[in-house]
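Deliverable D4.2, example record:
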Amino acid sequence: VQLVESGGGSVQAGGSLRLSCVASGYIGGSTSMGWFRQGPGKEREGVAAIYSGGDIKTYDSSLASRLLISRDKDTVSLEMNRVEPEDTGTYFCALSTETCAWDDFSAWGQGTQVTVSS
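Output generated by the structure prediction step:
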């Protein structure tokens, strides 16, 4: 499986960002796709995930009010509004062949850097 992210970069606090990820190389079955992030000096954490049909979504509870995840077949997108400097980090696209649970994700993209300036 290959996961290729795009859309990272620099954004000012209070603005919005949109990340996209395209998956390829996976054959058959239903999958979940999601986003994780790792801030400076922090562990990687789950941000949002969406099941194959788009009817099941999972959000980190502390971020949910600022997030929207969507999916069109093998492409998953993440919109984050009202970004804060604390949102700075590397954002990883991930794929699960099981559920949307954070621990089920086993395939990872290279990551895209997001930097939020105040």
